[in-house]
Specification:
With about 300 residues, the protein is of the alpha/beta class. It is built from 14 helices and eleven strands. β5, α8 and β6 form a beta-alpha-beta unit. α12 packs across α13. The longest helix has 18 residues. It is globular, with a radius of gyration of 22 Å.
């Protein structure tokens, strides 16, 4: 092979460096999305964008109402599903090789749910106790609702709410399998549903509608369907439901705001604006921003606010 001239070598080096810098092309992201994430995450952006293109881990959460993690691990091994424990997540097991866990006897008996590691951090963050009255205000199909009930030892009251009835129907099926009977599913079909619960909840979990940029590797097509205009719409929705749904928290109780977004504009900035708009009524306690390059789990955000 002929030796490269200094000019040729410099040209090739510059081309390689340019390719590395252009993560939007290298990792296949829309230009607008790359620019947005770069602006908001700055020097962390490229690490996050690469991580979001890596295959998602499969993580299970042991249902402590029916089993313990060690027991579940052994039962799954008998069924040919090998797992390992996840440090810092006492209910979590991570699959060491991909398997269809939904056909296992352990799943049919309600011994576990599939739930990402970042998502599993939300309920411990809520500081809940048995006997509390808790509202899961954007419950969907109820992954966190089930986790809440488990932490409450199936004692107390959980009101799981959503605007989509089909999701609540799926939640009811999951509740039965998990052996949970303290959850009441309520459809949000008018503002009266929220007003009837004003000031009654020890905790309100607001897992808000968001861009879903923290879970892109689970929904890779969504980065081509999402638009900047839609993200702006979602920010308005977040602002409105933060204001409206927070009324369900009683004095001394906590509002937990969560998203599966990596954007500070959907996360900390929303919380800061809410606190500014409600000065003297709420107190910021703690927040947690989880980025997907840190532990290979989903991008997630959670904040805990106390009503004064």
């Amino acid at each position: 092979m002929p030796e490269l001239s200094p000019l040729d070598a410099k040209f090739i080096l510059n081309q390689r460096q340019a390719a590395k810098k252009n993560i939007a092309i290298e990792e296949s992201y829309p230009d607008w999305m790359y620019q947005l994430i770069k602006e908001e995450l700055e020097n962390k952006a490229d690490l996050v964008l690469r991580a979001l293109n890596q295959r998602a881990e499969i993580v299970l959460r042991a249902n402590l109402l029916k089993t313990q993690r060690d027991i579940l691990q052994k039962k799954l091994e008998i069924e040919g599903v090998l797992t390992q424990k996840v440090e810092g997540l006492p209910e979590a097991l991570k699959l060491t090789e991909r398997k269809n866990v939904f056909i296992t006897k352990a799943f049919k008996e309600g011994l576990f749910e599939m739930q990402d590691g970042s998502s599993q951090k939300v309920v411990p963050f809520m500081k809940i106790k048995s006997g509390m009255r808790i509202v899961d205000a954007c419950a969907g199909a109820g992954g966190k609702t089930l986790h809440i009930a488990s932490h409450m030892q199936n004692k107390g009251k959980v009101i799981a709410m959503d605007i989509e009835e089909r999701k609540l129907i799926e939640l009811k099926r999951r509740l039965k399998r998990a052996g949970v009977d303290i959850v009441e599913a309520r459809l949000i079909d008018s503002t009266k549903v929220i007003k009837r619960l004003e000031g009654v909840a020890d905790r309100v979990l607001l897992d808000a509608p968001c861009s879903g940029l923290g879970v892109l590797r689970r929904n890779p097509d969504s980065k081509w369907k999402m638009t900047l205009e839609r993200i702006e719409e979602l920010k308005k929705i977040q602002k409105n439901i933060l204001q409206d749904y927070s009324s369900m928290v009683k004095r001394g109780g906590y509002l937990i705001y969560a998203t599966c977004s990596i954007l500070p504009s959907e996360n900390k900035r929303q919380v800061d604006q809410f606190l500014k708009n409600n000065q003297g009524n709420w107190e910021f306690e703690e927040d947690l921003s989880l980025l997907p390059h840190q532990d290979k789990f989903d991008g997630f955000y959670m904040a805990r606010l106390k009503r004064l």
